[in-house]
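**Protein fold record**
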Amino acid sequence: MKAFFLILNKEEYLEEILEVFLELNIPGATVIDSIGMGTILAKDIPIFAGFRHVFQGSRSGNKTIISIIPDELVEPTILAIEQVIGPLTSPGNGLAFTVAVQDLFGLREAL
């Protein structure tokens, strides 16, 4: 099992990404409002204000999606996400990563 994280910079694709999860039989995910370090620095520290366009452009935040998925769904999930938002290697699309899950408590036995 993997903890799958997607930092989605293009919030307009959130519902479509969640639909992709359902199509892949990923029954649940947690969505968290998040904000990048550059945006915070540009707002709160005057010396960085001039660099705001470098850090985030006009984007004010993003969504972080977290889900526990079977190992064999990692690659299909990435491919499906990229069909929606474009390559994750393109600047501004987002970032995805996984973390191995050793123990899991409180999730139904579907996994």
